[in-house]
Amino acid sequence: MRRLNRKCIYFVLLSVLLLAACSSKEEVGLEEPEDDKDTIEEPDENPEPELAYMYPLSGEKTNEDTSYRAFGVMIENSAQARPQSGIYQADVVYEVLAEGTITRLLAFYHSMQPEIIGPVRSARDYYIYLNNGFDAVYASAGGSPGAFDLINAGYVDHISGLVYDGSYFVRSSERKAPHNLYTSYADLVNAATELGYDLTRSVPDQLLFAEEGELSDGEELLSFEVKYGNAANNVQYRYDEESGSYYRYYDGVRMDDLETGEPVAPDNVFIVEAPHQVIDEQQRRAIDVDAGGRAYLMQDGKVQEVEWKNDDGMILPYKDGKRLPYLPGQTWINLVPSGNGGLDNYVEFFRDTAEG
After folding, report:
1. What is the arithmetic mean of pLDDT over 251-278?
2. What is the pTM of this model?
3. What pLDDT, on the 0 to 100 scale, is given for residue 214?
4. Residue 131: how many CB atoms within 10 A of its CB?
């Protein structure tokens, strides 16, 4: 009888212990670990690839090899030549007086390869100096005596639109000569190759470019005009807030591409004053592109008064002794005379007017 009671007691105690153990495990199981989903960063399944290269004249990133030369093309800018072709695809454009109140454009092509460029017109010596700052192959049709002196001396790798008229340059039947000579990027490459020019040299990387959000200096300026002495040749710039670019106008007409209708819309406008001197009856000029001096830099709807210097043939912006960066995209450089008031006379600000 005593043994039976002990066995019963034993089983009762064992049951109690088992129940206690199960209860303890359930209580432990109720303490769920904290949810770490909010603190764990999931890896990006489709990260944006790191672009390995940068176009040296536009500052835009790419995976394409950029170690090849640019082309500098002389493009007419008289009223008879507008609208032009291929200018919106240029990386850098110089606009400088050529004769009288008419400007001419030196457009540099590297990051984009237009199918139509023109109308191509004649050279000037100061354009050749500016061209060589980018070590570009230079294309023109005709030129001033000073320009031919440099070309004949081998100072520049030159492609003549007159020599190659009918092959690498073609005439449009839509316009009369001399406003109708056109070429293409591919034709320029073929002409340069035929002439034996080295196209494998890299563009000098003198230009600085800002990262997004880096620019902060300057006063708001949404519209301005560069005055070259004639309503048909004065150029107005209007800032477009949506694109962050400046649209260009001549006599109220926006500068659009002839073939595509795309607007010419630089992201940087750099206006510099330089000594100009009329030297002949055609009102051609000698222009000092080495002097340095006052300048305005327009970016992101703002303006800064800065200075310009010629660094190895490139006209570049400086402030307080430091070189300033451009925004990635197209850069337009306007030269105006330093005499007769310089910038104060040739540039007018309209602070309350924007594109649209």
Report:
1. 98
2. 0.86
3. 76
4. 29
The full 3-state SS of the chain, as one line of letters, equals CHHHHHHHHHHHHHHHHHHHHHHHHHHHHHCCCCCCCCCCCCCCCCCCCCCCEECCCCCCEECCCCCCCCEEEEEECCHHHCCCECHHHCCEEEEEEEECCEEEEEEEECCCCCCCEECECCECHHHHHHHHHCCCEEEECCECHHHHHHHHCCCCCEEECCCCECCCEEECCCCCCCCCEEECHHHHHHHHHHCCCCCCCCCCCCCCECCCCCCCCCEECCEEEECCCCCCCCEEEEEECCCCEEEEEECCEECECCCCCCECCCCEEEEEEECEEECCCCCEEEECCCCCEEEEEEECCEEEEEEEEEECCEEEEEECCEECCECCCCEEEEEEECCCCCHHHHEEEECCCCCC
pLDDT band with cut points at 50, 70 and 90 for residue 20: very low
Q: Which long-range contacts (CB under 8 A, 24 or more apart) does 23-27 make?
A: none
In sequence order, the β-bridge partners of residue 285 are 278
Sign of CA dihedral 183, 188, 192, 193: negative
Structure tokens at 309: 């210097």
Tell me what the mean pLDDT of segment 276-285 comes to.
Answer: 93
Asked whether the predicted pLDDT for residue 321 surpasses 60, the reply is yes
Per-residue pLDDT for 32 more than 50? no
Fold classified for 54-350: YerB-like fold (3.50.90)
Q: What is the pLDDT of residues 141-172, one digit of tens each?
A: 999 999 999 999 999 999 999 999 999 999 99
Q: Which of 354, 347, 349 is nearest to 222 (CA)?
A: 354
**How far is Cα 166 from Cα 287, in angstroms, rounded to an integer?**
33
Closest to 233 in 3D by CA, of 253, 250, 246 = 250
